[in-house]
What does this fold into?
Amino acid sequence: MIYTRLRSLYLLLTLFSLCFPLVAGADARKLVILNRVNAIAPDLVSAFEARYDARIEQILFLTDEHRSQMLVNSAAEGIDVIQTSGIDLNLYIRRGWIRPLNTALIPTLQHISPIWRYAFEQAGTHAVPYSWGTTGIVYRSDLLATPITRWQQLYQPQPELQGRIGMSENGDALIEMGLKALGYSLNSDDEAQLNDVEALLNNQKPYVKSYARLTADKGADILSGAMIAAMTDNGEAARLQKHNQNLVYIVPEEGGRIWVDYFAITRKSQAQQLAHSFINFMNQPKNAAMQARYLHSATANSAAEQYLPAPFLQDPVIYPAASVHARSEFSRQIKAQAVRRRNAISAAVLH
Amino acid sequence: MRLSNKFALMVIPLIALPLLIVGILAYIELWTTSEQHSRAQVNNHLQQLASDFKGQVSTTQFALKTLANDALLHDYLLTNNQTLRYGLLQRPLLQKMASIQAANPDFYEIRLLRRNGFEELRRVNRAIPNISETEADAAFFSQLRQRQQSRQDSPNDHFEFIGDNPDNRTQALFISLPVYLPSSSGRSSTPTLHGYLSITQSMDSLIELALPSPWQSNLVMISDATNPQKAPMVSEHPLSNQPLQLAALHAQPLGEWRDVSLNGQSLQHFSIPLTADLQIHTLIPQQTLMETSRKVGAILLVITGLALIIAIPVLLWLLRSQVLSPIATLNRALDGLAEGQGRIQLPKGGDDEIGDLVGAFNHMSLELYESNERIRSLAFLDSLTGLPNRVLFRRNLNRAMAGADRDGTMLALLFIDLDNFKHVNDTLGHPIGDKMLQQIAQRLQHHLRADDQAGRVDSGNIDANFSRLGGDEFTILIPNLEDAYQARIVAERIIAAIAEPIAIDHHQLYVGASIGIAIWPNDADSAEQLITHADQAMYQAKHQGKNNVHYYSQAIGEQTHRRARIEQRLHRAEIRGDLTLFYQPVVDSRTHEILSFEALVRWTDAELGPVPPDRFIPIAEESNLILPIGEWILNEACKQVRQWHDEGFPQIRVGINLSVVQLSQPTIVDVVQQALQRHRLASKSIYVELTETAIIKGEQQVLQNLQALRKMGIQIALDDFGTGYSSLSYLQNLPIDILKIDQGFIKNMDQGSNCIILSAIITMAHALGLKVIAEGVEDLSHLQFLATEEGVMIQGFLFSPPRSPVEAIDLVLQGFSQSPTKRYQLAE
It folds into this structure.
């Protein structure tokens, strides 16, 4: 199912890139951004286009894996700005697709908290973070007798949850949270621990309703009650809570993952100047605040916080408590053989 | 030798031999054809298997080639940095493999192997564990390497291998393709081997295509030139567990059926090539391959056998029934003729020769019989008149007496003696006398043959009833008599017939006859006595004068005489005007109003004087004379009613008696209707009366007629109620409107509990919706009683005897003048 959807998107993209030269000829100032669906506030896009007399072309992807696949297929050509997670950013840099930033062109960098800017290897020189958050569990408190507090409740579900849980489509997330559930580090490359997590995932599989990214569609399973609990990130959870007050988001006791999203500029970009302007524009405190509210997730821009309302800043879903930080981890590059092993595990579970 | 044996000896070989020869020839031919057919079918099926197999292989090869040319694969193989390879490239490449698998689910394993056998990538679409990540020691990989080295000339060739998959321990088809790429430096243009792409396929689809019935017991194998010692079995088979000399099979010529002996079993072997290395074989036990042939052969033998078993008996049976059996019958019939068994006639079989023979026999037999009969009649018939003689008469008499005893009927024996015959004989001579006897015999037969109720004779055997005992003495037997008087009727007709002048040779001769009658069993105890008594009665008759009839029994004589007179006189009495109708009024028991009249017939004969109805009505009924008389009464009564109506008494109703004989006629309803129409009367102007016995007999016709009459609006009165056995509850279901209580009840009203019964009858009749008429009311005490009963009509001498029409109407006028305040309501 997911695969078919990806394929149709891919087809759409291919058609899109065919039209590309025509569009390019019509407009000299154009910025192509590879970003996740709903990743940039539309008002900011229009504002930027007006301010810089440019046009933003968004190439959309649904999942991180999908983004990598698109970049592999195109060798990152024809794209100016990539929106990416910190862990994949590192791979793209190693692959040589990313150009180091000209920091002089981005004065707003000063507002970025160093915690997020340097959270991932080489991120500080090659990319600018704009959003961060956690990976946890969202569940329907009205449909569940026992509140969810632990990953194990999701990975080894009780009968009331069996067949009514949603898991991420991202294999790494499945494995990393699985490792946390087992009490290991999410960056473990220990063979035995990976075997454990493989068994955990295989045992869970019969009870999983779907491996997919949650959406806030009207008929979404988590809203209709067909699904009671799901792995998701806090931004998506906050967005969903707008539709149903009974949805509770938690970062389980075993701890979770802290993710950071970055913008980076491709090495082969033909619009280096404009790309830097875009990143700078996005980092202007007011714009960063608008982006944070659009995404329902915390901003990496310290100066933007003054433009955010108190309830937003105090929302534990968006800004988790320190204890959550304490028990959570960033994803790190692990040994290549462990990556291969993870690939095999996620392929077996997801396909 | 008997003919039947001869036929059997001729027929059996004539049929059996050709049938056997045809059967054997067909058996051989069918066997051969079926064998060829079986082989062709196996061959076709194997070709189909091979074709499917090749199709699958080429699909797989195409998939492999597509994947091998994919840029992502090249990128993957050429990326030495493991982190990038696994972190970035592996998943997209696995995706690609997954998409190939999605299109070809049979490719359950797609692998990318390094040159050293390391399993770089493995994509499975079912839960199959991976036993080892290196295939260096696997049979398939070592074969692959060997082949790779031996085929340096064409490095891009595919390699097919069939063998056990250690991961799931099933047989699998491995198809592999080496991947050659320029080295990562890009400087060298010579491609080098970077690894192998390999697709593992299940053999399930080939197993499904195993041979269909009846060859499912065959063994299908695929042999591999590179490894001829170990061939995989495609189909499950007991032999597949035994070591086979497959190298020898692989060396067998392709596309030819060969007998091979494997492990002591005789098998048919057939093989065709699949690919350069692979051959597909089938081994079928000789027995199985010939299964159809054997079945067809067996059926043929059974058919031949059945044909023999059926045809021979049928033919023999036909011969027996059509030829032998008629001949035997003829033979027996001839024996019968010889023994003098009388008239023998055989059923004529058909228009064949045997039929002609039977016809000829029947003709001969008939002639013989008739000549025998002629001889016999000389002994039993009177030669002068042709009537039975005394001998035959005795025989017939005995038979008739036995018949009468059996049926419980009477038999009359009439002895006839001609008067004046001696005189004729003496004066005119014997020849004239003989001729006269002949004519009289003819007259007797002629007159008695006429269908006559009174003189029924057993017309089927009429000759048996007459005989001439000799001289001028004749006898007649009248069987099946119900009453003795019937004999007199016959006798008198005979006398009348004989009394007619007889013309012989210009002479008009007149003779008379005297007849004596004796009745069996009343008048005698034996045949001799019956003859004697009839003779005595005849002498009595002669003694009384000529042309007389005399019964042996005086009582019977008188009774029958009177009865015969009445019947005779009654004939056409209505036309002569001897019958008249009288009318007796029916009045209301309290008001004494005349409600209706009952029409009663009176007969005054010119010779007999007045005869009471109870004397002549039964005779009229027995002789059916009641039909014309009844119709006359009906018409006469209607005519009278019409006249009264015209004279100013339009309310007068008349009850008319209908006899059961009349009511049994289907035409009676029409007769009544016609009478009403003729006299322009409404149906309520008359009602009909009938006796209880008429209705109790329950004849369907009677009931139907009554229903029809009622439907016309004519009321039905039941006469003489109480004399029969009918109960009131029975009457409930009958078409009755009026109940006439028999006069016996009224007359004996004083006796016992009759009064109570009468009262009960009236009450119940009223309850049933019937009107009641009490008959025979003769004195005042009757009237007093009946006057206490409500709605009862009375009829009787107390009020008036039956009167002539004129007197009857006077009665009405009288009543009218006596009580001017009262209107005589003559109705309802």
About this structure: Residues 450-460, 816-828 of chain B have pLDDT under 50 and may be disordered. The first helix of chain B runs from residue 3 to 68. The CA atoms of residues 248 and 313 of chain B lie 58 Å apart. The two ends of chain B are 98 Å apart (CA to CA).
